[in-house]
User: Fold this.
Amino acid sequence: MNWIAWIFVGVQFILLFVLFRIVIRLVLFILFFHESLPYAPSNWVPQRAIARLPVLDGRKKIVDLGSGTGELLLAIGKRHRAAELVGVEHNRALNFFARARFFFWRKKGRPTIITGDMFAYSLQNVDAVVGYWIQVVMPQLLEKFAKELRPGAVVICHTFPLPDHPAFSKQEINIPYSKKQIWIYTKCSL
Ligand SMILES: C[S@@+](CC[C@H](N)C(=O)[O-])C[C@H]1O[C@@H](n2cnc3c(N)ncnc32)[C@H](O)[C@@H]1O
Assistant:
């Protein structure tokens, strides 16, 4: 086979891989759309923007509440190798894909995927919580954050902001060259 044929095979292989990813995402999205907080992976723009936030530097434990197939964790994990990363997701099928995603990562630095209810996961020793949430779950989440997070801990989300709360200071960031936004909530000292 000459080099043009190799390039042709390579391009076909990449296209097939991209198509496979799109189909898998679409099937999972359709299957789990009925939930109050449905599966919808974060777009790569906010994923990367969140991962690059200086406020995450040096954080020891970062938790994605409702981690889906681990897209957001992946972006964060690539930049914050020293942090302990945890994904909490109640859907076993999505957890299967998330664990497969991290299967070849070295044990040290590999995100831990926990099957469980994000509202039941204790945030006592967590430095940063990230997530992609919608309005229906936000009041309950906010109450949990206010009760369990220690001063200085941050909550970071994108696309939809959390309601204001006196226990948190809020910072809004417009992602350059995009219409998307990120919000950082820092737990205030008592
Ligand atoms: C919008 S997706 C976000 C996925 C991922 N964080 C990301 O940014 O790509 C929300 C996820 O939360 C999960 N979820 C909804 N309610 C949950 C609960 N009570 N406990 C754990 N996970 C939950 C859904 O199954 C879904 O995968």
